[in-house]
Amino acid sequence: MSDESKSIHEFDFSLICEYFSSIERQGPGSPEVTMKALSFVDHLTNDFRIADIGCGTGGQTMVLAQHMPGQIIGIDLFPEFISLFNTHAANLNFQDRVKGVVGSMDNLPFRDEEFDLIWSEGAIYNIGFERGLNEWRKFLKVGGYIAVSEASWFTDERPAEIDAFWKDAYPGIDTIPNKVAQMQKAGYIPVASFILPENCWTENFYVPQVKAQSDFLKKYAGNKTAEEFVANERHEAQLYSAYKDFYGYVFYIGKKI
Ligand code: SAH
User: Angle of helix 160-169 relative to helix 224-243, nearest 10 degrees?
Assistant: First the structure.
């Protein structure tokens, strides 16, 4: 790769980071959904250790910290997100028990059986659901829980346009029974799975992006990368509104056995 293309690539990344840093969440979700998923985890104690993988700027992590004791480590690939994460933790006075670190989910800096709970909202797709469940299992104590949200099909068949979109964006998307079977095969009891309500996509994800998009386009007027990026995000939001009966995010909660 030439130096020139490398710098363009880096610019893309920093643009995307800037865009997503301006909104509270980097994926569909809500505090209510985080709490609902947490309700399936038994015996939360003061010594609980939690990893939040692909934590972004920490929207869901701070909800967890507000509702449970214990130590939380958030990990994300992007230093800009981790810096905001640590600012949010400090603003809420959680700095002694909530810490963000930069790192990659395919090479986690954790010890075997270090955690009671692994959390990951809208992020495991970066290495794939099955691979993540299999590789992260060793970091959990026996009897520990994993809770991840993941794009899933609601039906066995669906219109060609949305099928093609997801096969390109994330070929790992699958039906709920298939995902549950993958979780069981990876060595977890499938404790629960539930579909995230629509407001997680609309009010909490696509609506805040409308303002972010117009600010962003004003700031980067004439910048092709920024324009294409916003066009993609808008296309995704339109697809969701047209095809939301066929797919969505599902929370999967498992217990290591
Ligand atoms: N959990 C947050 C963010 C979801 S977006 C929320 O629900 O709001 C997906 C996140 O995964 C982004 O923050 C992105 O930076 C992070 N990510 C992407 N690839 C990663 C990797 N290899 N390791 C760790 N984090 C990664």
Answer: 130
**Closest ligand 1 atom, residue 120 Cα:** 1
Q: Where are the domains of the chain?
A: 26-197+245-256
Quickly tell me which residue has 């509702």 as its tokens.
67
Could you tell me the distance, in angstroms and rounded to a whole number, from the CA of residue 184 to the centre of ligand 1?
24
Q: Is 56 in the pocket of ligand 1 (CB under 6 A)?
A: yes
Nearest atom in ligand 1 to 28's CA: 7
Ligand 1: atom nearest CA of 104 is: 23
Q: How far is the CA of 18 from the centre of ligand 1 (A)?
A: 14
Read off the pLDDT of residues 77-132 as tens digits, 9 standing for 90 and up. Answer: 999 999 999 999 999 999 999 999 999 999 999 999 999 999 999 999 999 999 99
Nearest partner of 78 among 97, 59, 105, 51, judged by Cα: 105
| Whether the CB of 29 sits within 6 Å of ligand 1 | yes
Best CATH choice for the domain 26-197+245-256 from the list 3.90.1300.10, 3.30.43.10, 3.40.1360.10, 3.40.50.150 = 3.40.50.150
pLDDT tens digits, 187-217: 999 999 999 999 999 999 999 999 999 999 9
The pTM of the full predicted model, rounded to 2 decimals, is 0.93
